[in-house]
Amino acid sequence: MAVRLLDSYTEMTEILLPNDTNNLGRALGGAVLNWMDICGAVAAMRFAGDQVVTASMDHVDFISPIELGEVVVVEGYVFDTGRTSVDVKVDVHAEDPKSDRPNRDTTTSFFTFVALDEEGRPTPVPDLVCETDVERELRESAVDDRREQLRMVADRLDD
């Protein structure tokens, strides 16, 4: 069985409220990571057709703060698979609903989820297919972005 990349696409929208902010009125990193994990898990479940658990999350850099009252858009999709695992790219963008400024990137990371059967044991996942140019471009972009992120982390460790 095979599943298309776009069948896993998931988008969540949040508004940054005071309970999820620090004393500067900006998003708590933990709140953002929680939204990313949920979005990634939904994408993985849509793809696998089974329950999933988070196995790992790659390095995260918070590149732009999210301010109180801004709309947060979290997007995720499966871009690679193993036998029982799926890799999901998750991007976070912020937008000021009162402004004409475009959305800005705030963070990206890559999650690996493992599919589980009814007894809680790892179970095989479908093959990933990319039937359209859009799907192929999304997959290639995610693979390249993950490779670049891992290279940058390795370079930091070498310093």
Automatic annotation (TrEMBL):
Q: Which InterPro entries match?
A: Cytosol_ACT, HOTDOG_ACOT, HotDog_dom_sf, Thioestr_dom
Start and end of every HotDog ACOT-type domain? 6-119
Signal sequence interval, chain numbering: none
> Which SUPFAM superfamilies does the record cross-reference, listed alphabetically?
Thioesterase/thiol ester dehydrase-isomerase (SSF54637)
UniProt GO MF annotations? long-chain fatty acyl-CoA hydrolase activity
* Swiss-Prot/TrEMBL GO biological process terms: acyl-CoA metabolic process; fatty acid catabolic process
Which domain of life does this protein belong to? Archaea
Q: Sorted alphabetically, which Pfam families does this protein's record hold?
A: 4HBT (PF03061)
List the GO cellular component terms.
cytosol
What keywords tag this UniProt record? Answer: Hydrolase
Any idea what this protein is called?
Acyl-CoA thioesterase
**What species is this protein from?**
Halomarina oriensis
